[in-house]
Amino acid sequence: MYSLIRKFNLKAVVNTSRIIRSSSTDVPDFDMENPYEREKRECILCKYKIQADYKNVRLLSQFQSPYTGRIYGKHITGLCSKQQELVEKEIVKAQSAGLMGTYSKEPIFLQDPELFDVEKPLRPHRF
Ligand SMILES: [Zn+2]
Q1: How far is ligand 1, taken at its centre, from the CA of residue 84, in Å?
Q2: 85 CA distance to ligand 1 middle (Å)
Q3: I need a labelling partner for 126 at 20 to 30 A (CA). Which of 18, 34, 39, 71 fits?
Q4: CATH of region 49-109, choose from 1.10.10.60, 4.10.640.10, 2.60.40.790, 2.60.40.60
């Protein structure tokens, strides 16, 4: 009889200790990555570690409209502010150096793949 009680008490102690452990830290015992963590968004130039350069006209013309020669905005290109600023600066540099058209895209670059969908901007157009 005595041994039975002792056994029971021991079991009870084990049980309470388990409860205390689980309630004191409200996280699961195993390592798990946060399922609610936001997905890190990286722009295409940062992702592939590409540095925009005025001599790389082929890359720069991918950010230029084939109809007007205008540089696409950040909401269309999806670039981060830093890269967008750099691309715009380098395009202006290339245009003033005569390497790139101002009002049209070079015809040889018209078949190049598109880096972003012009029809689906990340942010709605302001007009
Ligand atoms: Zn970036």
Answers
A1: 8
A2: 10
A3: 39
A4: 4.10.640.10
